[in-house]
Amino acid sequence: MSDILTTKxxxxxxxxxxxxxxSTGQAIADYNMIEEGDRIMVCLSGGKxxxxxxxxxxxxxxxxxxxxxxxAVNLDQKQPGFPAHxxxxxxxxxxxxxxxxxxxxxxxxxxxxxxxxxxxxxxxxLRRGILYRTAKELGASKIxxxxxxxxxxxxxxxxxxxxxxxxxxxxxxxxxNGEHVVxxxxxxxxxxxxxxxxxxxxxxxxxxxxxGSQPNLxxxxxxQMLNDWDEKFPGRLESMFTAMQNVVPSHLCDTDLFDFxxxxxxxxxxDGGDIAFDREDIKYTAQETMxxxxxxxxQDKILEIRELS
Length: 309
Known about the structure:
The model is unreliable at 284-309 (pLDDT under 50). This protein is α/β, with parallel strands linked by helices and 309 residues long. The two termini are 30 Å apart. The protein is globular. Strand 2, helix 3 and strand 3 form a beta-alpha-beta unit. Strands 3-2-1-4-6-5 form a 6-stranded mixed sheet, with helices on both faces. It has helices at residues 7-31, 48-63, 86-94, 105-112, 120-138, 149-163, 191-201, 218-232, 236-244, 292-297, and strands at 39-43, 69-76, 97-102, 142-144, 172-174, 181-183. The chain has a domain at 7-216: HUPs (Rossmann fold).
């Protein structure tokens, strides 16, 4: 494949870059993810999401009104056939500070998990522990993960279907050991846009042969369901994510979140009252924006591509 992008590809890349930068910047601002003097440890797995996260954060740092440092960290879990040279070479060319950690968690997982069972839970716990330790050693004030909007929606569906909880991935939280702040700057970004962006950027993607290749993973099934909805019902995922930001405790059933016992006729109408069975007039209009391809072809024959401000 040629390393030279066509004019159309360049146009698409710049549009995607602008959108991802805006979404990431908005998420960072909404949750106060990055502050003056922060040292951000970006967890780089070798997948499309973490490559995009590192790329966008580096760009935002150059234009940010505050100063913060970035260090990329990759955990080499010693999976058979893992191309250990790819990330160091890429990061050296990028000129970003980085650290490669070598820990044979692969053997531990293979030894502890029976054949045919999913390895994600143990692998995730081992990986988190190593990353927390590394963050402390490096003096990182924040740990940045590459989870995006679709990951958060899939997690919500998994908890709804299998854990009996209305719970998802938070955009910002305190780590399991209570010593770090974990952030997800791509929280507002769509996976399909990240995927297209990564393809055009031609990142040296390293597939995960430990988790992603396992059949019948409930997370994969949930994500496929969401993708099907997105294709058949445009706007549904946007509405679902908006709902995660507009919780009404008085119209759920969690007695720890809302004091139902103290409600009396003197309490007044709470959040609209009993409208659960009313036919709500939901006004949703799909954005009538042209696709990137349509925008490209609508331009004059001589297309001027301006640099992003």
